[in-house]
Structure formats: C-alpha cells, structure tokens
Specification:
Chain B: One of its GO terms (molecular function) is ABC-type transporter activity. Chain B: It comes from Arthrobacter psychrochitiniphilus. The complex is a heterodimer of chains A (296) and B (295). Chain A is of the alpha/beta class. Helices cover 40% and strands 25% of the residues of chain A. Chain A has a six-stranded mixed beta sheet, with helices on both faces. In chain A, strand 8 and strand 9 form a beta hairpin. In chain A, helix 5 packs across helix 6. The longest helix of chain A has 17 residues. With 295 residues, chain B is mainly alpha-helical. The longest helix of chain B is centred in the middle third of the chain and has 28 residues. Chain B is elongated and about 85 Å long. The chains are: A alpha/beta (296), B mainly alpha (295). At the A-B interface, strand 2, helix 3, strand 4, helix 4 and helix 10 of A face strand 1, strand 2, helix 2 and helix 5 of B.
C-alpha cells in the first residue's frame, strides 16, 4: 500500500478524464429498404410505427486526460465528433459506453443552452443562475454585469420567445459566462452577434480563461487554436487522430485538409492512417482504486 | 468507419496513463438517494423561483389572465349541474347537491392539474435539463409547488361558494381538517407525477393515455353522483372506497358540508396512499436520473 500511496502523490490530479467514451445514436432514416418480396404489403409497411433506423457512430472509443492549467483545442472537419465530445464532457448527453470524470461541474459556453421561452429575459437570468447553483445574493451582485454582457438593455424585461435568435444566444452566453467555472468548455459560439457583442464577449472569455482551471475549446479557426491553446486534439469521423502540442497538430491537420481540397483523397486517407497509427493508444488506470481498465 | 482495407490502423503502442480519480466525480452521475434529497434541498431557491415565475406567466396569453383559474372549475360545475343534476337527476337524494358538486370538482381539478403538470415536467423542460446540471426532481417538484400556489385562491373560492350558495353551511372547527387533507393530496400528486414523468420521458405515448386515465379516475370518484348508487355492487363499491381521490373528496365534504368528523379509517387509507405514492414515485424517478438528459 505504501508504494501505491507514493504513486498517488506523484500523479497530478486531472480536471477532466474521459475514460474510453463512445457515443452512438440510433436515428430514423428515410431511406426505403428494398423489399421486393411482398410488394402488395406496402400499405402494411406504412402503418409500421417504427421507421427504418440506422446507427450513427458520432464518437468512437476515446480516452483523454486534461490536467489543471491546460488549455486544449479540439479541431476536425464537420461531423468529426467535436461537438459530441463537448456535449459529453458537459453532461448534456450520456455516453453509450465509458465515462467522463470531472473535478467539478463543467460549464459550456455555447449557443445551445436554451432556456424557458415563456419567461422574460431577467427571469431567465435568475432561473439559469439558480440552476447553476448560485445564490440570490450572488445573482443580485452579478445581474447588471450579465445584462451588460448580453447587451439587451430594456429588452431584458420582454419574454424570451420575442427575442431574435441573436439576442437569445447573447443572453445564454451572458448567463453561462457569469459563473466562474473551474472547467470551461467553449464551442465556437462566439461568432454570433454583431461586432460590438463580439468584442464584449471576447473580453469576458479572456477573463474566464485566465481564471479557469482548464479550458476545452472547439474552433474551426486554426489561428485561434494556436493562439489560445498549448495542446490540441484532432478528431476525424469520430476517431482520435492526433493529440499533441498545438503547433504540430494544426500543422498535420492543415496538411490533411490541403490534400483533401486538392482532391487527393487517397493521399489524405493514407496520411490520416499514418498519423493515427503513430499515436499511442491511451489506457486510463485509476490508481486510487487499484483497478485497471484498458482502452480498445 | 469508412476506411478501406489498406488504411486499417495499427496503433504503435498502448500507453498506460495512471490518473488519480479519487477527487473526480463522474459527470451526470446519480448520487445516493439521501444525497439526492440533500441536493434537492440545496436547489430550493431554484425550485421556488421556477414555480413563482411560471405562476405569473402561465395565463399571460389570456385577456382575463388568472381569472381563468377560477372560471374554469365554475364553468365545469355549471355544466355538470345542468347535465347531471337537472337533466339526469344523479343528484337526487344528495343533501346540498351544489356544495357536493363544487367540492368534488374543485378538489379533483387540483389533482388532475398537478398530476398532468408533473407528468409532463421533464419532457416540457428538455431545454433546461440539457442546459444545466441540477437534480431533475426539481422540475416535477416545482410544478407541484406552482399548482399548490395557484390552488390557494381556488380553495378560498371553493369555501366561499360553499358559504354563499344556499343551503349555506355553518363554519365549524372541522374546516381546519382540510389542511391535512390538502397536504396529503399534495404528496399523493407529487408521487404520481414523478413516477409518470419518468415513464413519459421514455415512452411519450403515455402522455396521450393520461387524459383517459384521469377521466376514469374522475368517474370513480363520485363527483356528481353518490357512491350509494353502487351499494348493490360490493366489488365496485370497495374499489371506489379505496380510491384515494374519492377519499380526499369524501373527507372534504364531511368536514365542510355535513359537519361530520371523518372516520379514522379514511385518514389511515389516505395517508397510506400518499406516503406510498411519494416513496415509490420519488425512488422510481431517482433511479432514472441519468436517463433524462438524452434527447
């Protein structure tokens, strides 16, 4: 036991541990199955309440450890599983297998944290803050700041269903940003809204980032990733391709997309396979419990 | 997923990464039941604010606003009085039929509103559930508290109607007994609503069946006829007398209209119903805590 204790003290305590998580969806498909055996049964098939479903592998088994003080960027093409990973870490969806462990409740800064449309903006502010665990005193303290960040001014007293989509997402951002989270997730949300809001939100983000324990940032802008993060994860079609220093990962990713845009699909696929195979598969071992789980 | 043969990935090496998970907790994990209750208590400001904000916004779309909360049961009462009392004569032999009907309709409406609201609370607040991490039982609990707040003026109106419409009844100490009745009714509604909320979050089809189930419950609760009609059918009679809704209405009528102290047996049966509904409903709801986030 003494050796184990020693080991426990040596290993840094991480903020986020994704232990072999995978996400699959079953969704209905409008594709009609070719069934020529019983053509006269077409009417019966129309009555079938369960449409043809297919399984989408949004994210394949993936293990990831983010330590305190780290800023990690997530890059990849559309549909690579970036947003799925963020939703999993924030707890918006539950993984089909594996588990996400976190040192505190992660807060997602994004446009999709919807609220109650019947209530007014200020009521939504209070409700959202209470749902994040703030007290009435803390909310009263930060209320003006939230309204200022959202830029809604007098409209804050109108029902949220009367808001334009830009106003709604600004308010959601302002509410999520008012907590000072230890774990901050940013899902490329901040290009909504006008230039004035962009500047305000960027300032608030920088403040949050400097205070947060760790940050996960999804972005399509490689410049943003290189500026703001030290480490980057490249996802493609649900697979983890590369995990390393931001400079190297963005360079490899750029090479990959350049080949794709030139139409060299085979070269790109080979390069992707080469990069992926040079990556070591990570197995998470929980030394506090002395039991091992290995990644596939 | 769509890789061709030559692209099959062979990982270079498996890297073992030791981490200390003792300070971490699984995201979205379901706590132990008692911890869950403590969490729920910590979120009491959220629950109460949610309930109060929605009371105000609930009827904002109607021109008459909150007046509908009262007009609704009154119109119901008038309809039932005309159809059952005057046309079908189901009220024959019931002393103070208007009072009898009023209490039945008001008390039933409170339960049906609370159960419907509680049952749909998860499904209707999917956005909140996905956006924030809080104990999900806050939603059905908030709905029930909101209904209870809305019901305060309704109960006062019910008492007023009993006092004003002839034959008027005198106020006795037994009027105070409706407080424990309302409390037991609240617990019963909460328990049933929580159990249904989990069922409906999984199988939405049940929400279509709910109005029929409530309608059947209404007919079994002797709202516009006397249970003595079934004195010849011992099976139906015993089903009816075990029905918690019937007991709630019966106790209320005894206290408010007939100046009779309700039998101890009714209290015992009602308490058993309420507590078992609450315990079964909340444990069943808590067991599904992790499943509510999935869209």
């Amino acid at each position: 036991m003494s050796v184990a204790d020693l080991l426990t003290n040596l290993v840094p305590t991480p903020c986020i541990v994704a232990d072999n998580v995978a996400m699959r969806y079953r969704v209905p498909s409008t594709e009609v199955p070719e069934d020529t055996r019983y053509p006269h049964m077409k009417f019966l098939r129309m009555l079938n309440p369960l449409p043809n479903t297919v399984t989408v592998h949004a994210l394949n088994e993936l293990s990831l450890v983010v330590n305190r003080g780290e800023s990690v960027g997530v890059i990849g093409r559309n549909g690579s599983g970036k947003s799925t990973l963020m939703k999993l870490v924030s707890g918006q969806i539950r993984p089909t297998s594996g588990a996400i462990h976190a040192s505190s409740t992660p807060i997602m800064l994004g446009v999709n944290a919807a609220l109650v449309p019947e209530l007014s903006g200020d009521q939504n502010v209070v409700l959202g803050c209470l749902a994040m665990g703030l007290t009435h005193a803390e909310i009263a303290e930060r209320f003006d700041e939230i309204v200022e960040v959202s830029g809604l001014e007098k409209s804050i007293h109108l029902p949220m269903k009367s808001y334009s989509s830009g106003m709604g997402s600004r308010l959601r951002f302002a509410i999520a940003a008012c907590a000072n989270p230890e774990i901050l997730l940013v899902d490329e949300a901040l290009n909504t809204g006008d230039a004035q809001f962009a500047a305000r939100s960027k300032r608030r983000m920088d403040e949050l980032r400097s205070e947060a324990g760790c940050v996960l940032l999804v972005s399509h802008s490689l410049e943003t990733i290189k500026d703001m993060t030290s480490r980057t994860v490249w996802l493609d079609k649900g697979d983890l391709i590369m995990d390393g220093p931001s400079k190297e990962v963005t360079k490899a990713y750029m090479k990959f997309t350049k080949e794709l845009s030139k139409g060299n699909n085979i070269t790109a696929a080979n390069f992707r396979a080469e990069v992926q195979s040079s990556q070591a598969n990570v197995s998470i071992v929980d030394i506090s419990r002395q039991n091992t789980r290995s990644a596939g | 997923m769509t890789q061709t043969q030559e692209n099959v990935v062979v990982p270079a090496a498996a890297k073992i990464l030791p981490v200390n998970l003792s300070h971490l907790s699984r995201v979205g994990a379901r706590p132990a039941f008692l911890d869950y209750l403590v969490q729920l208590w910590d979120f009491r400001s959220f629950i109460i604010y949610d309930a109060r904000a929605r009371v105000k916004s609930g009827t904002r779309r109607d021109k008459l606003g909150s007046a509908w909360l009262l007009l609704n049961p009154i119109f119901n009462g008038v309809t039932y009085f005309v159809i059952f009392g005057l046309l079908l004569g189901t009220g024959n032999g019931i002393p103070n039929f208007i009072g009898y009907l009023t209490i039945g309709i008001f008390m039933f409406q409170m339960t049906s509103g609370a159960i419907t609201g509680g049952a749909r609370s998860i499904q209707q607040n999917r956005a909140l559930v996905q956006g924030f991490t809080f104990p999900r039982a806050a939603l059905p609990l908030g709905v029930n508290i909101r209904e209870a707040m809305v019901n305060v003026p309704m109960i006062l109106a019910m008492l007023l109607l009993v006092l004003v419409i002839p034959p008027t009844e005198p106020i006795t100490w037994r009027w105070l007994l409706i407080i424990p009745v309302l409390l037991l009714q609240f617990l019963f509604n909460l328990g049933v609503g929580m159990a249904l909320a989990r069922v409906i979050s999984r199988v939405n089809d049940v929400s279509h069946l709910l109005p029929f189930a409530l309608r059947a419950l209404m007919y079994l609760s002797a709202i516009f006829f006397s249970y003595e009609r079934f004195i010849q059918h011992p099976v139906l009679l015993s089903i009816m007398q075990a029905n918690p809704m019937f007991i709630i209405i019966d106790i209320t009528r005894d206290c408010l209209l007939y100046g009779v102290t309700p039998a101890l047996q009714s209290w015992v049966v009602l308490t058993a119903w309420s507590l078992s509904a609450l315990i079964i409903g909340s444990v069943y709801f808590w067991k599904g805590e992790e499943s509510y986030v999935r869209g």
